[in-house]
């Protein structure tokens, strides 16, 4: 006999937000992608790209990604092992990430972990991401793909 656990609706709603984040980014659906973010976001990609932690508006973030991601022939952000902790109207989540980027002869892939902080937006009946951190574990391929993707959009 198999035991079926009753899923927690908040846990599933947060996971749905995170999987949609990856899917909308890969499919360049930036209008839907922006709905997944709070008006202001803390973005930390310093482990991968150096620099500083950014405090950025949702609009500016989506504009950056809309200028960058279509420069690749294909991207695939594969989330797995998603872990969620909900505390009233806030949630913390972690997910393993394998992000693959293809452009011509160049391929770049990073493996690591995303950390998310989310807030429940009651009047919209959904969760929004207000902090996103990428922890890099490893990478393979050629970062030239990133350089070329940026150039292709100029």
Write a brief structural summary:
It holds the Pfam family SnoaL_4. This protein has 154 residues and is an alpha+beta fold.
Key traits:
SnoaL-like, 47% strand, alpha+beta, 154 residues, Nuclear Transport Factor 2, Chain: A, Nuclear transport factor 2 family protein, six-stranded mixed beta sheet, NTF2-like_dom_sf
Protein model, in words:
With 154 residues, the protein is of the alpha+beta class. It has a single domain, classed as Nuclear Transport Factor 2, Chain: A, CATH 3.10.450. The chain has 5 helices and 6 strands; from the N terminus they run ααβαβαββββα. The chain has helices at residues 9-26, 30-35, 46-49, 58-68, 144-152, and strands spanning 37-44, 54-57, 74-87, 90-103, 106-121, 126-141. Strands 2-1-6-5-4-3 form a 6-stranded mixed beta sheet. β5 and β6 (126-141) form a beta hairpin. The longest helix has 18 residues, at 9-26. The chain is globular and about 50 Å long. The N and C termini lie far apart (59 Å). This is Nuclear transport factor 2 family protein. Residues 13-132 form the SnoaL-like domain.
